[in-house]
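Database export, one record per block. Field names are fixed; values are copied verbatim from the stored entry.
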Amino acid sequence: MTGDAQQQQNRDTGLVSLLRDAAWLDKERVRAYAVIYFLGSLGMIANTYVKAMGGVGSDFLAFWGAAKITLSEGAAATYDIALQKAVQASTGFDEVFAFVNPPPFLFAVTPFGALPYPAAWIAWVVTTFALWFAVSWKVAPRFWPLILAYPGAMIAASHAQNGLLTGALLVGGVALAGKRPLLGGAMIGALVIKPHLAVLLPFWLAAGGKWKAFIAAGISAVGLLALSWWVFGTETMLAYTTSWEKSALLMAQDDDDFFLRMATLYSQLRIWAGHEIALGINVVVATAMIALVWLSWKRFGGDMAASGALALAATPLASPYLFNYDLAFLILPTLWLVAEARDRKGSFRPWDKAILLMLWLAPFVTRAAALPLHLNLMPLASAAMVWLIWQRGKAA
């Protein structure tokens, strides 16, 4: 072997060792990198905010428009697409974001209709991020830097979407379902505002025999629907059904960019194989995820933290409709894996730190690479997370 070849081999070996052991990625550097990433993300959010105030618009326009209309015209009018367009046009936006959320969601957004659009955007992001951070920090306070800068939360914040609110409900619901089943179940039930994100949780609660939380979730979901019916009236409930056609039109379109922004297996298969094949495969995979969640209680010896982490990690594979801005809830399974790797006897396994870093970054990296690659790799990251929890939960 020549000298140059030997030097190249040594460099390759050194790089592999650097990634395999990642001794450089210690506690202090993790905190420093997290803070740097958080500050950089604030710049990204500021950039999207400036664009949102101009002609580009923002998903939050649908929420703000619904809130303004509810306060001025009544809740039923929020589903009037022409009225939404007129209200949103006051911000300088020429098109329209349809409001398709169920009436209980109006309880969350209506107070922000009292603010001008620029102030409402900031208030919504700050409020929902604070709620998500508080709930996640309560679950794993020692990992606060990883929570603060979590890319899934940063994407949700930049879109001013409801991923931080639903993320707080998912994380809190799963974390509290054991110790405080009534509160945990109520938080899960509150996901009636976006039920496809909670598709696995009824099976998870039933398989674990967590009947208090299961019943509380049902009462919460039905109670919120009944309360919104009482407060907003039958006309609003009927008007909501008209939004189903708009949602169906969104899913029926052949815009690859729309599906590339989604983080589900269905969305990626839809691009390459069409709706029927993608849906069929998604049903099979979703059934497999239900089975895994059901069996996880026995495999993990009743460890609620491990089985709950698996249920949330499997959600992007089970649900056909989920975007990268919905992924703030993956902080819980990510931190479960971090805690398992850090607290096990001895030291980190080879490649542990590199794998955990990639999973932590996955919501942002997969979203950023989706359009250039013409493929969103988030389902692959979700599958890796499910596999790791399934393998390591037994030992834990």
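Remark 1: The mean pLDDT is 91.
Remark 2: Residues 27-52 form the longest helix (26 residues).
End of record.
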